[in-house]
Amino acid sequence: MDFELSDEQNMLKDSVERFVKDNYSAEARAKLADTELGFSRDHWKTMAELGWLGMPFPEEVGGFGGTAIETAIMMENMGNGLVLEPFLSTVILGGGLVAEAGNEAQIEAIIPEVIEGNMMLAFAYAEPQSRFDLNDVETSASKSGDGYVLNGHKAVVYHGTTADKIIVSARTSGDSRDENGISLFVVDNNSSGVTRRDYRTIDGQRAADITLKDVKVGADALLGEEGGALPVIEKVVDRAIAALCAEAVGAMQAANNITNEYMKERKQFGTPIGKFQVLQHRMVDMYMEAEQSKSMSDMVAMKLELDDETERRKAVAAAKAQIGQAAKFVGEQSIQLHGGMGMTDEYSIGHYFKRLTTIEMLFGNTDHHFKKYAALAS
Amino acid sequence: MDLTFSKEDLAFRDEVREFLATSLPADVKDRCDRGLHPTKEGQTRWQKILNEKGWMAPNWPVEYGGTGWTITQKYIAAQEFGYAAAPVATAFGVSMVGPVIYTFGNQEQKDYYLPRILNSDDWWCQGYSEPGSGSDLASLQTKAVRDGDDYIVNGQKIWTSYAHYADMIFCLVRTDSSVKQQEGISFLLIDMKTPGITVKPIIGIDKEHSLNEVFFEDVRVPVVNRIGEENKGWTYAKFLLGNERTSIARVGRSKRQVERLKEIAKAERSGGRPLSEDTDFINKLTRIEVDLMALEYTELRMLSMIANGKQLSAEPSLLKIKGTEIQQRLTNLLVESFGMYGAPYEAERSYAGRNEAPVGPDYAHGPMAEHLYLRAATIYGGSNEIQRNIVSKMVLGL
């Protein structure tokens, strides 16, 4: 057993750390979050040049064959600076689905472009009624000639605005909550019949609600087996959850560092507030939550590489539930310990709080994952 | 001990209900229900309606324009206002400076300011906190130096809610630096239009503008605008904070939030069933509801003690701590109830001039803004940590 990083992994960590240090000061991030795009295409290019966008893909398609551990290293350090580029949406989710389910032609058409930084992706899975259930799909795909016609409403698609292609889950058969009958389609974002409502999210990112009205796609848009997409979706979403857990760990560590420093500097009653025992204990609780989260995040990254599916899914549910609770606690208490300063948009701590708040809800909140774990463990 | 309502009380309840049903403007109600900041225009319009009815200041003595309600009637009114999503009058005038003026002010001050508060002629804001003086309020540095019939005020206040709406600010200023901190503070009423006052917005984590910094540069304030004696301001300030803590529990509002959660839970789905059938959700909501009931009866018990002439010490701190914790748990659960639609968020400020509706279900518009803003509830009015210190010292003698 070993939780230490290899030399290569340490180099990767240093590289992401340096990128965040150079590009993600609180001011730079605030400015970027406020632009129309909400992130930087130059940064995206840099990420491609550094090889990050190809990290999790197999070497055969031009990737580096990295594991979930490499992904976690990157996400943790990006979480530290609240990086805004759509790495999770494009590489882990979109790219992950194509690499996992796509045929040779699809992989060749998409993955190298992603790795080069020329193509962005998004995954449209949620629907207004689905809450966090990946099998709850009402969007329909009916056979029409050689291809399919898609109709439905996809909710809160992160980076759905800037994606060149959207991976859409749609039902080719069965009832709205059946596990069978779900298929994946690659849809060009500018296809006729696709309308988007673009908006900002509380964490400073961008998302869209996407309406599909008689969107015609060819047979080559079907990703993987017709009706059999759920296991693939679950597998890739599990990886995204593990990545998100690592991001949360980075964000919690940064929030704790910022708060810790503030407690040393801020004086009231003639003494640094960090000298007050009640606040010291609070800070210790926040530190412990972040440490427990780091352990869960490392654990889940390692377990993702195992073949035992139940074990993998239990690890993901447990990690997300524990980290969701920790993220809320650390985020909320960071604001509290900052007092009024924590309430301002100008100061960085509120942005950590808001990202941690959304991480708790993305891909299922704490309650959802406790339920999932209970079902898997019984 | 008795919890039953008399026939008169029930008739009073019907009167309040009827009044709110017919007089509360729909736009004001909607903003209040969603938890959005009031607009100056809407709040003022509503307060003028309240004043016309004679209900602007239920807690004031009748001689100054109070309603003369019994403690039971005040309770009934608060309940009905909460249920109907009717805003209470903005606290800074009616609940904070008003009682200071009628308790410690002179006749001229009472005659001039109290009717103006009742009629919403002046929007008040509170000049307490400073960059270096938050929890340690008595360390405040804003100086007032006597110059003939004026004080000349220099310094800075911060976290001043609605200073950009305000006509008047009540301010704690230092008039003597040579004595113990608490003994050199005075309480001034300052016209916001006085030359030398600058208001600078602070954009909050909710991306809205409700907080401000207020700068004073050689601001001349007539000595007649001082409340009570020079250097006795700390006594008046503490009196005011005591009043603030009893109104901060917001039980009526929290009860309405519980109702809202129940309505939303019927519309949302979890695991293919209504969210209202989700046992995790039910547990959380029920725990809040029972805690809220305990808070409600604690508040009533304290009000009854006051009505029977008993002196409270730091008990109102308990209402502040429990009340704000419940408010935060409620907005947390509200945001959670929307699932993924908790994530979309745009400040109202950035919606100005657009006519598309906010994304997601209609009831999802508001709670996230309130959730973000209410992180301040455990900070403002004396942070909950400070409140616990007060209880520990004053009640428990530790």
UniProtKB/TrEMBL annotation, chain A:
Entry's family note: Belongs to the acyl-CoA dehydrogenase family.
Domain annotation Acyl-CoA dehydrogenase/oxidase N-terminal: ranges: 6-117
Cofactor: FAD
Domain of life: Bacteria
Name of the protein this chain belongs to: Pimeloyl-CoA dehydrogenase small subunit
Swiss-Prot/TrEMBL keywords: FAD, Flavoprotein, Oxidoreductase
Keyword Plastid: no
Domain Acyl-CoA oxidase/dehydrogenase middle: 122-214
GO molecular function: acyl-CoA dehydrogenase activity; flavin adenine dinucleotide binding
Taxonomic placement: Bacteria, Pseudomonadati, Pseudomonadota, Alphaproteobacteria, Sneathiellales
Record domain Acyl-CoA dehydrogenase/oxidase C-terminal: where: 241-369
Pfam families: Acyl-CoA_dh_1, Acyl-CoA_dh_M, Acyl-CoA_dh_N
CDD domains: ACAD (cd00567)
UniProtKB/TrEMBL annotation, chain B:
One GO MF term attached to the UniProt entry: flavin adenine dinucleotide binding
Residues annotated as domain Acyl-CoA dehydrogenase/oxidase N-terminal: 7-119
Cofactor dependency: FAD
Protein name: Pimeloyl-CoA dehydrogenase large subunit
Family statement: Belongs to the acyl-CoA dehydrogenase family.
Domain Acyl-CoA oxidase/dehydrogenase middle: 125-219
A GO term from the CC aspect: plasma membrane
Domain Acyl-CoA dehydrogenase/oxidase C-terminal residue range list: 231-395
InterPro entries reported in the protein's UniProt record: Acyl-CoA_Oxase/DH_mid-dom, Acyl-CoA_Oxase/DH_mid-dom_sf, AcylCo_DH-like_C, AcylCo_DH/oxidase_C, AcylCoA_DH/ox_N, AcylCoA_DH/ox_N_sf, AcylCoA_DH/oxidase_NM_dom_sf, Mycobact_Acyl-CoA_DH
UniProt keyword terms in alphabetical order: FAD, Flavoprotein, Oxidoreductase
Record's keyword annotation contains Phosphoprotein: no
Signal sequence coordinates: none
Keyword Oxidoreductase: yes
Annotated organism of origin: Sneathiella litorea
